[in-house]
Amino acid sequence: MNRVFLFIICFIVLFNSCRTPKDVSYFQGIENLTEEQRLAMNQKYVPRICIDDVLIINVTSPDRESVTPFTPPPYGYYLPGESEIGISATTQNLFTYLVDEDGFINFPLLGRIHVAGMTINETIRMMEEKVRESAPAAVVSVQIANFKVGIFGEVKEANLYTIKTPRISILDLVSMAGDLTIMADRKNVWLLRDNNGEKEQVCMDLTDPAIFASPFYYLQQNDMVYVMPNKAQKRNSRYSNKDNVKVSMFSVIVSSLSVISSAILTLRAQNRN
User: Considering only CA atoms, which of 196, 185, 36, 179 is closest in space to residue 116?
Assistant: First the structure.
């Protein structure tokens, strides 16, 4: 009877050591979602201009002289017959405009323009309407130059990333960071956001497929994501590296003994039969 009991205990230990913890998997239960829940995931997101954004704004036109007042040198003031100067990394700074604490930029000839809270397309349409009063064929382009998001905590590559696309999701950022570590708490991922001066903190669960329908699934510029450690990692933090090695060795020995004991008990049972 004692041998049977020992065999059961060893089997349980071996099974628990080999199985994959449930909390490691992303989007659990996604195959069981209803059609209504799936439709809720198909959200659209367009980033909006925020305070402290740096905008690259260019005004062009077939009639170059008409847009000269809206274009800083050297591009706007080249002489007839001279080769046009391209927008290099150095000259690009001449086309950037900081969104101040009140949400305004100071643009040549047009003066102060409020852009905070507007999308890129809304800003383009608004500025083209103003510029075309003087230059009917003018075309305006707007881009956010300092769109950055960061991730740290239990990730493989914590970093501050510059984003060149108009939008990025929390999963895109996790992929850029090389995925979460095995010691990450995937149910406890915090988004820290400065929303035009107002601080927001949101906890997200990456094991829940409802993350796709979350209003925080897409990130804003300057968002920071912190991935909390799981309970095992928190417990390990109490020990030194030397203690961790001892614990790991002990775990290996226990697992090995469990396998050996299981094998011996199985062989004895077969010999009796």
Answer: 196
